[in-house]
Write a structure and sequence with these properties.
mainly alpha; single chain; two-stranded antiparallel ribbon
């Protein structure tokens, strides 16, 4: 077990410090940008801070965020009037560094030497997708920290701490409820025969975990009237799409997503694979693998995820780091040939991990950018022309909605609108559902903004029974919007369109004149 005297000496602590410094170097040479979905959370936090409640549009109770705990945390910068996107990025980084520290502590509890623990943690420090996931403004850093803290408390026998952390994990990502049987089984198998009250030990784990799950669920039912966040319903396969083709397509997309993640974290993946071979009798290995395996059905059902950095899975990198540390510890006592071979394989994996990262910047730039710069530009230009009575439907929802909190914002894909999910007729894997008839006939937006061409507009034109062109004027936007497009932008490559209700054209068209609007006809 951990020897405090030994833990404070030797080169391992220095390797740990190097590992903690590596993320800062990685992020300095990478694009750090808050993802647009983070601004959905920020708008909820803003409305809560303003006394409107935990809502996206005041008066409509729809849970359009996935992480309750992270959304509540974002109310702090809103109360303090500091840039929320910067606060979210820095908080994510701090929590990621704490996750790195907890990974180190977990390895030491598992009798991994300080030097080997430091090498494993330094590898986590070199994994770009992990650090960019936790700095994109969402709950990744919080989830990763609570996850590895739960593992550390579990292997050290702190049942009550595990129960509390498990409940907080549920508040961070609801699918973490699948961790409960994995952790309970591990705790049961690790019960010491000399434990005087084994049932009390398990109760100490289960009671706070289940209590938080029940409390949050009852609050959700009372406040939102739903068992699960609307985000889960919006992105799930609707019943009318439960076909073999859709299921196979999502499964293939999920398998591809898993393969891409494992390749992006190659040295960690290799460490996990070899851990099964060289240390398969250690329960801690199966604990980490069991927790990671809970994401298999989630990823396969969703077909992966549209966001970069494998954000659904990269937050599990601390678990893979624990497995890598156990593998390296075992190999450290092997023959010279085995150590040299493993070292070369490990070094090659690190090189591949770094070289396959897509979003390096040539020169170091520590600035934190807002999401989708072209949407930022469009939002700035349209701002003075917007009225509080307007209904705007932007395809990229978060940034535009957050910067115009007094305007009603309609979500074309239903994350923040339960009616879209209930009336949906179109399902797009990875993105969600849409209800063109509901949007056109019931919501009737004054302004529709899309960056993916006619994908949303054509279905509305079809359900309009030939009246779409009578009510809306549609323009293709060019000009300066093209100047800010890049591979990181959500509006790269595809046409940017603005569809404006006829009576509002005199007000909105001058606002977008900088983008050289050209009148186009929406095809049916």
């Amino acid at each position: 077990m951990l020897n405090p005297a030994e833990d404070g000496k030797g080169p391992g602590r220095w390797v740990l410090l190097v590992g903690a410094a590596l993320p800062l170097a990685l992020l300095a040479f990478s694009h750090v940008r808050a993802v647009d979905d983070a601004y959905i959370v920020f708008r909820y936090a803003h409305n809560l801070a303003e006394g409107e409640g935990l809502v996206f549009n005041p008066g409509e109770r729809v849970e359009g965020y996935t992480s309750l705990l992270w959304t509540l945390a974002m109310t702090l910068p809103e109360f303090l009037s500091i840039p929320t996107y910067q606060f979210a990025t820095w908080l994510g980084l701090v929590l990621g560094l704490l996750a790195l520290l907890e990974t180190w502590r977990t390895l030491r509890i598992l009798d991994v030497s300080p030097l080997v623990s430091g090498v494993a943690v330094a590898t986590l420090g070199l994994y770009p997708e992990f650090w960019q996931t936790i700095t994109m403004g969402l709950e990744g850093g919080l989830f990763a920290f609570l996850l590895i803290l739960t593992v550390r408390l579990l292997v050290s026998g702190s049942a009550l701490g595990v129960g509390v952390c498990g409940g907080l994990l549920f508040m961070t990502r609801p699918e973490s409820v699948l961790f409960l049987p994995v952790c309970t089984l591990f705790a049961f198998l690790c019960l010491d025969d000399r434990e005087r009250r084994p049932l009390q030990h398990l109760f100490a784990l289960l009671v706070p975990w289940l209590a938080l799950i029940v409390a949050v669920t009852l609050w959700r039912l009372t406040y939102y009237g739903e068992w699960l966040p609307n985000t889960i319903s919006a992105k799930s396969i609707p019943t009318y799409e439960l076909t073999t083709r859709t299921l196979m397509g999502n499964t293939l997309g999920g398998v591809t997503y898993w393969a891409g993640f494992l390749w992006s974290a190659l040295p960690l993946s290799l460490g996990a694979a070899f851990a099964i071979i060289v240390s398969r009798r250690r329960l801690a290995i199966w604990l980490c693998l069991g927790l990671l395996a809970t994401q298999i059905p989630v990823v396969l059902a969703n077909g992966g995820d549209w966001m970069d950095y494998y954000r659904l899975l990269s937050v599990y990198a601390p678990l893979l780091t624990v497995l890598l540390g156990l593998t390296l510890q075992r190999l450290a006592h092997s023959g010279v040939a085995a150590r040299v071979s493993a070292g070369l394989l490990f070094a090659g994996g690190v090189i591949i991990m770094l070289s396959t990262h897509e979003y390096w910047d040539i020169t170091p730039d520590a600035t934190i950018e807002k999401a989708a710069p072209c949407w930022q530009l469009l939002s700035d230009e349209l701002g003075p022309a917007l009225f509080p009575s307007d209904v705007v439907a932007p395809e990229v929802l978060g940034l535009f909605a957050y910067e115009h909190p007094d305007v009603y914002v309609h979500d074309l894909m239903g994350l923040t609108d339960r009616e879209v999910v209930e009336r949906s007729t179109i399902y797009v894997p990875l993105y969600g559902q849409s209800a063109p008839a509901y949007t056109y006939h019931k919501v009737r937006p004054d302004l529709i903004l899309v960056h993916s061409g006619f994908g949303f507009l054509t279905p509305m034109a079809r359900v309009s029974k030939g009246t779409y062109e009578d009510h809306y004027s549609t323009y293709s936007l060019q000009g300066s919007l093209r100047d800010v497009r890049d591979e990181q932008s959500s509006c790269a490559r595809r046409p940017f369109l603005a569809s404006i209700r006829k009576q509002d054209v005199p007000r909105f068209l001058p606002a977008i004149s900088e983008f050289k609007p050209q009148r186009v006809t929406v095809p049916k």
